[in-house]
Design brief:
Blueprint lengths: L7 H20 L3 E9 L5 E8 L1 H7 L1
Antiparallel strand pairs: 1-2
């Protein structure tokens, strides 16, 4: 597995902000689950796949 370097000073605040939004959305029942992937070819790029609940899909449609 190739090594991945991450600038944690920039990454951690972003992750903290994401978690805050995720926590609120989860409490409201708008998110079912979240999958975070690190793209090894692109470097420290993070893709977040979020599955919205049926209720959330109605709101955001």
């Amino acid at each position: 597995m190739p090594e991945i370097s991450v600038d944690f000073e920039k990454f951690i605040p972003s992750l903290h902000q994401f978690y805050s939004y995720y926590h609120i959305m989860k409490k409201l029942g708008l998110i079912e689950d979240v999958k975070i992937e690190i793209d090894e070819l692109e470097g420290p790029t993070i893709t977040v796949n979020t599955n919205l609940t049926t209720e959330a899909k109605k709101i955001f449609a």
